[in-house]
Amino acid sequence: MSVRTAVPMAMRLSWLVLFALMIGEFVTDLPGPGWATTFLPATVVLALMAATMTLQVRAASPQGDPRPPVEVDPPVTGRWTALNSPADKVPSHGTHVYGQTYAIDIVAEPETGEGEPSARPAFRWLWPVVRRNRAFPAFGTPLLAVADATVVRASDGQRDHLSRNSLPALAYLMLIEGNVRSIVGAHRVIGNHVILDLGEGTFAVYAHVRRGSLQVKAGDRVRAGQWLGQVGNSGNTTEPHLHFHLMDGPDPDSARGVPFTWRGVGVPANGEAFTAGEQGQEQAEGYGQEQVGEHVADA
């Protein structure tokens, strides 16, 4: 087992031990002073967690000279806006873990008439606290293969939760839900996902996929522009969007990030609107929403 694989496992084990100590303090009456039975062990565990977290970040950080950007097709078509882009800062999401050093988030931004409000609901301070996913234009849009590839992971059994784009919902996400997901593991952070092996040690990650929408499974060969599934709102998200990144291995727990550039688009900066080409659009439209199946869920 490599260090890059063992460190995340040690982190989760530390969380479990800490929770066990906290529960034990309330449900048992162990002999001896509290500092010896609870405080001291908890302090040791917290110190180990801090050390493990440092090792996790260091293991996921780029080593040596950065790889040149890998050029691939855009994973979507139409008009979108970039958020948390590596064009502005690296690591783009404030961390190297899960291979997301050069990750990008994108949200659909359809054209609207002059003077008309955006089709994408804005962030609210208080109300509405949450919104249903169909209020966001990204939800249900097709995800396309960025290159000829082999599917190495495909999972779409997690639910699409309601939006978290209000102050109360965002606080809940950051203080409670996000931490719980991190403890459980990468698969709960990225939600439903598909990972493609592009060859030459490069893997593409599509995160937060819509439940029940995947049209591929592990082992399938796909062609560039082929419909893989749909944008959803599963995992650690505030609203329906696509989180995309390249990495150097198939396991987000142990992979390092790889720079990318989208053919015909480049790497859009944070807040920059862009229009992806029409490659794969006819296939996506022809497939039809009804062919996704009745098992697709709408939160």
Protein described:
The chain has 299 residues and is α+β, with helices and mostly antiparallel strands. The chain has two domains: 3-60; 70-292, Glucose Permease (Domain IIA). It is 27% helix and 19% strand. The chain has five helices and 13 strands. It has helices at 3-27, 34-60, 167-184, 186-190, 281-287, and strands spanning 70-72, 78-83, 104-108, 142-144, 149-155, 193-199, 202-207, 221-222, 227-230, 242-247, 257-258, 260-262, 273-276. Strand 6 and strand 7 form a beta hairpin. The relative contact order is 0.19.
Number of DSSP strand runs? 13
Output mean pLDDT.
81
Rg (CA only): 21 Å
User: Can you tell me the CATH class of the largest domain?
Assistant: Mainly Beta
What class do helices, strands and sheet pairing give? Answer: alpha+beta
Biased composition (Low complexity): 276-291
Transmembrane segments: 39-57
Pfam family, one: Peptidase_M23
Keywords: Membrane, Transmembrane, Transmembrane helix
